[in-house]
Amino acid sequence: xxxxxxxxxxxFVLIIIAPILLIIAVLVKxxxxxxxxxxxxxxxxYGESFYIYKFRSMVQNASEIGPYxxxxxxxxxxxxxxxxxxxxxDELPQIINVIKGEMSLVGPRPNVFAQRPExxxxxWEMRNSVRPGITGLAQALLRSSATPDERTALDLxxxxxxxxxxxxxxxxLTVKQVFMKGGN
Length: 184
Hints:
Strand content: 5-15%
Helix content: 40-55%
Order of helices and strands: HEEHHHEHEHHH
Number of helices: 8
Radius of gyration: 16 Å
Distance between the termini: 33 Å
Low-confidence stretches: none
Mean pLDDT: 91
Structural class: mainly alpha
Largest sheet: 2 strands, antiparallel
Number of strands: 4
């Protein structure tokens, strides 16, 4: 049921937001050199790798001049990038990852492989026993203010309690977070 829900919602949302995606793509391209989309290898279901899609919100060589995470006032973030990150519009291309089956609408945010040492073996395996999501419990409750430990605890709590009703609650809380707090 979750997969059918994911595909149905993702296709519907993609059709509705296509004009917004086009406008953002043009703005990203006008502001800075480089591709419109950023893709990065991430950890998926059962630890398999996949490439996540995002609108590029940083300078072209950001990964070469800084860490895999961003700070609040990260100098690598472009002007358009600040807007699309604050509103989470940069994440919208992940709808394609959902349609492809690499992600779900709800689940733990997909880690980069460099984060593996931050987990013990059992937690890593448990966290990756579900599809990663565009949003998750940590994003719904704490947005980008969560510490790594808080994020891990909430990700593991999600895996333990995963249900369709919890997914609906997380989607609604995420919308509230985006409109109330924004992102980094």
